[in-house]
Amino acid sequence: MRKTSQMILDELKEHVIQGNIEVVEKLTHDAINNQIPAYSVVSLALVPAMRIVGTRFEERDFFVPEVLMSAEAMKTAMEVLHPHLKVSGFTRRTKVVIGVIRECSQEIGKDLVATMLSGAGFEVHDLGVNVHPDRFVDVAKELGAQIIAVGSPMDYTTHYIREITERLRAENLRSKIKVLIGGAGTSSQTVDEVNADAWAENALDAVKKVEELGSE
Ligand code: B12
User: How far is the CA of 53 from the centre of ligand 1 (A)?
Assistant: First the structure.
């Protein structure tokens, strides 16, 4: 029996939760071969899977090793999807420096945002995880970037973002370089707390916010 798109997405979600990397890789190829749009694979299977993993982690049903397996499975799927997430054939002038703030090494959300931004044609410079506030500013200045995008998956590292905005202000760069924030440790309220310019709830929203900030 030929699998329907819904069956592939359901299976993919389940295998990401279970952390079955090889099966996830195969199912992601199946999804692409079945003409399921790459972003639908992300939003209908991968992200909901990680949400369930998060709930199980919170309920102490899953522990760090299980979460890591799911995270690896998600990353494998993202590698397969990466070339298919390129939605535009043109390059935009807006340069974005992106990374996860210091003391945090949780990268999946940031990777997804970086992939979507480069897929939308922005020039993205990914600094990785555990990035010192000064490094965001140094690299943005060096490259002439218009936007610094900072991920903070944990709420207790969010305050470091203020060091970025403070330094930009001290160097009179606050109006030239905009700061976009996101990740599970942030909310729309964090924007005021750390004096950022915008918050993105998810990767699609991040594309929209970068478009808006880049045209200001
Ligand atoms: C996977 C995971 C891990 C993995 C990370 C693997 C990896 N390579 O990245 C591992 C096991 C390593 C891990 C470790 C820890 N984790 Co963890 N982890 C998670 C989990 C379950 C899922 C996160 C995820 O990848 N989601 C999938 C992605 C796609 O979603 P997302 O991150 O929300 O990203 C979206 C948006 O937030 C936004 N976004 C994300 N980043 C960015 C960046 C920018 C610039 C923008 C604009 C937008 C944006 O767009 C994304 C796409 O839509 C969450 C639970 C949860 N509910 O989020 C906990 C969670 C983030 N972890 C948490 C904690 C506490 C930890 C540990 C301290 C646990 C421990 N006791 O050791 C360590 C910290 C290690 C460290 N110092 O970094 C807490 C944070 C609590 C808090 N509010 O501060 C959470 C929320 C779980 C919980 N409720 O307790 N974790």
Answer: 11
Is CATH 3.40.50.720 the right assignment for the domain spanning 5-85?
A: no
- Give the residue extent of every domain in the chain: 5-85, 95-214
Give me the pLDDT at residue 55, please.
93
CATH code of the domain made up of 95-214: 3.40.50.280
Predicted model pTM: 0.91
In testing the pocket of ligand 1, which one of 79, 154, 191, 201 has its CB within 8 Å of the most ligand atoms?
Answer: 154
Q: Is the pLDDT of residue 11 over 90?
A: yes
C-alpha to C-alpha distance for 40 and 62, rounded to whole angstroms:
26
**Of residues 34, 27, 107, 116, the one with CA closest to residue 75:** 107
Mean pLDDT across 75-90: 81
